[in-house]
Design a protein that fits this description.
46% of the residues lie in helices and 10% in strands. It has 13 helices and eight strands. Strands 2-1-8-7-6 form a five-stranded antiparallel β-sheet. Bound molecules: 6-diazenyl-5-OXO-L-norleucine (DON).
Length: 328
């Protein structure tokens, strides 16, 4: 396969490409399963799945695409989108910035001057966003959130109770973050309750195929390609993808932009999503992580797919929406 946007490709060729990339990285065993949330250490380090969902809903996958695992930080762009939809840009940006932090996902820091978290992809920003949703929905916040996430994935999702309780018991650093936010008035008195929703949203179970479908919903301008349900209005999809592009891979975001050139988000459960605007969603699952908390295989698979399909946003061959025409 040379280039999917040349017009020469077909569904079959994309499947062959996915198989090929899967086989190539199957033997890559670099990295370590996350253990700081004790329950996550039970993941099978060998699990590996790669899935592409096109913006018109076709699925190409290889490996372990039915194995449930927790979404973790991949929940963050989706709650950010919910907050934008429900509260508007102005209110959300009063509470959280859009600047890459250059620091780790769990760093305890706020922007000087404004005391806002740098962006909604790191823990300070994500807990703030969940706090905003909690201020609007109170006790019903998590049910509301799960319903929206299910619509994005196109099927009913559920929570891994053990992972949730494991992080609730041991998440002292996030608790410190919530109290820092409380101190600066970024979140209000219900900080503990908001933190609890944050822990639960991170424990939502997804498969690699769900992730690809969720990414495809972003790629398809906020409309789930399988169900046809509009989950986000178009105007906010741009906001979500921009922050994923600049901050979704934390302190690897610059290298990711350089090597992959596609908005993405990782989670310590081992998932990665990448959304190619108007074209396709990529989901990968492999729980061995690098020092940034990003899946090692997930990174390499995305680099390879971006290169072989010409997906990088600045690749001269990436002609955006005509990708789908090339598949017909
Ligand atoms: O807050 C945490 O530490 C986890 N629930 C989520 C972190 C995460 O997924 C970072 N991503 N790679």
């Amino acid at each position: 396969m040379t280039n999917a946007i040349s017009g020469a490709t077909s569904g079959h060729e994309l499947q062959a490409l996915v198989n090929d990339v899967y086989e190539k990285y199957l033997s890559d065993t670099r990295g370590h399963v996350a253990t700081y949330i004790p329950e996550l250490s039970k993941a099978n380090p060998d699990d590996f799945g790669v899935c592409l969902v096109t913006a018109d809903g076709r699925v190409f996958e290889a490996g372990c695409c039915d194995q449930p695992f927790t979404i973790q930080s991949i929940s963050k762009p989706f709650t950010f989108g919910m907050a934008l939809e429900e509260l508007g840009r102005e209110k959300v940006l009063e509470h959280v910035g859009v600047e890459p932090s250059g620091d780790a996902f769990n760093s305890i820091e706020l922007q000087s001057g404004t005391n806002r978290p740098f962006n909604p992809m790191i823990n300070t920003g994500a807990i703030t966003v969940t706090g905003l949703l909690h201020a609007a929905h109170g006790n019903g916040t998590f049910e509301h959130l799960l319903e929206r996430f299910s619509a994005i994935a196109g099927r009913q999702l559920s929570v891994d109770q053990d992972v949730y309780e494991s992080e609730r018991r041991t998440g002292h650093r996030n608790r410190a973050i919530a109290h820092l936010l409380l101190n600066f008035g970024v979140v209000h008195e219900e900080a503990e309750a908001a933190l609890d929703v944050y822990f639960k949203q991170c424990a939502i179970l997804v498969t690699c195929r769900d992730l690809a479908m969720m990414a495809a919903t972003l790629a398809n301008m906020g409309c789930n390609p399988a169900t046809g349900q509009h989950v986000y209005t178009i105007r906010y999809v741009k906001d979500i993808l921009s922050i994923m592009f600049t901050s979704g891979m934390y302190d690897y975001s610059g290298q990711w932009a350089y090597r992959v050139g596609v908005p993405a988000k990782s989670g310590v459960g081992g998932g990665v999503i990448a959304a190619v605007n108007r074209q396709l969603g990529i989901g990968t699952y492999s729980p061995r992580l690098d020092a940034h908390g990003n899946s090692c295989r997930g990174t390499e698979v995305c680099v390879e797919l971006a290169s072989r399909l010409g997906l990088h946003v600045f690749d001269c061959l990436n002609v955006g929406s005509s990708f789908i025409d090339a598949l017909l």
